[in-house]
Write a structure and sequence with these properties.
The protein contains seven helices and 18 strands. The chain is α+β, with helices and mostly antiparallel strands. It has helices at residues 35-48, 61-69, 136-141, 145-151, 160-163, 165-169, 213-227; strands at residues 3-5, 8-10, 12-15, 22-25, 50-53, 74-75, 89-93, 114-123, 131-135, 155-159, 182-186, 188-190, 197-199, 205-208, 233-236, 243-247, 251-255, 264-271. The protein has two domains: 12-134 and 233-277, Double-stranded beta-helix; 138-227, no CATH class. Pfam families: TauD (PF02668). InterPro entries: AtsK-like, TauD-like_sf, TauD/TfdA-like. Belongs to the TfdA dioxygenase family. This is Taurine dioxygenase.
């Protein structure tokens, strides 16, 4: 179990790759964790980018919301109403046709990014349905200097239209009124919690401002090739009772759509920040 020493909680951590991902052992998630435990988990989240917890069989929707709320204000998905009895749960049910099988940072089509999200497995296929995460800070670090110079002070438009979200949600979910579905962000932003520069792209990316669409697409493909390099990624094979928490400010993720049986996941997101670029005067 987690050990408490001098007001601090020492977690039992199993790293999964050198650059991203760790399993946190011997901790029961819920809204009653101590401040010291939350501080330790936050530190692990910032360091490993995505952290996993096994055998959380007793975690309910309400406890999932309460746990996420220890890290900040939980927010409902901007385009999807939460299930009955919950306030901010986003249900991803494969039978509704909602399979987000593309690399992305969450809600880049909004002015504010999510800080982090907590994802819980509800129903799983017998095989397939893994999720991958990438470290967008180490991806930026590994870019050639010539490519860094092209994107360091660039800004791009992100839109739900490019992400295909309206089509995926049409006839299934009700859109919350008054929520913007397009935003402009720096291509490279400074992660507020760590000070790291990180790439801000994903499938809602539309076009770099002041650049043609074909040229924007070429740069997008070059940068994303680094984001999704195996060295920058971790892959998680889900089991009943699994929970994942990822640092949305410096990750992208991808849910594989290689399964035929039903898959249901419940996600709770935590409000984050408006991205700030390497040149703050332009934000």
């Amino acid at each position: 179990m987690a050990v408490q020493t001098e007001g601090k909680t020492e977690l039992r951590i199993e790293r999964l790759t050198p650059r991203i991902g760790a399993i946190i052992h011997d901790i029961r998630l819920g809204g009653d964790l101590s401040n010291a435990a939350v501080d330790a988990l936050r530190e692990a989240l910032h360091r490993y980018k995505v952290i996993f917890f096994r055998e959380q069989f007793d975690l309910t929707d309400q406890e999932q919301e309460a746990f996420a709320g220890l890290f900040g204000t939980t927010t409902a998905h901007p385009l999807v109403k939460p299930p009955k009895g919950t306030k901010t749960v986003f249900e991803l049910d494969s039978t509704n046709g909602l399979r987000v099988d593309g690399w992305h940072t969450d809600v880049t089509y909004q002015e504010r990014l999510s800080y982090a999200s907590v994802l819980r497995a509800i129903e799983l296929p017998s095989i397939g349905g893994d999720t991958l995460w990438s470290n967008t800070a180490t991806a930026y670090e590994g870019l050639p200097d010539s490519l860094k110079r092209m994107i360091d002070h660039a800004y791009a438009r992100h839109s739900t239209d490019e992400a295909g979200m309206p089509e995926k949600l049409s006839g299934v979910y009700d859109r919350n009124p008054g929520i913007g579905s397009e935003a402009v962000h720096p291509v490279v932003h400074v992660v507020p919690e760590t000070g790291e520069p990180a790439i801000l792209m994903g499938f809602a990316f539309r076009q770099i401002l002041g650049m043609s669409y074909p040229d924007s697409l070429k740069i997008y493909e070059m940068v994303q090739a680094h984001v999704t390099r195996p060295e920058n990624t971790v892959r998680w094979r889900w089991a009943k009772g699994d929970v994942a928490m990822w640092f949305n400010h410096s990750t992208q993720h991808y849910a594989t759509a290689d399964y035929t049986e039903r898959r249901i996941m419940h996600r709770v997101s935590i409000d984050g920040a408006i991205p700030v670029g390497l040149n703050p005067a332009k934000t």
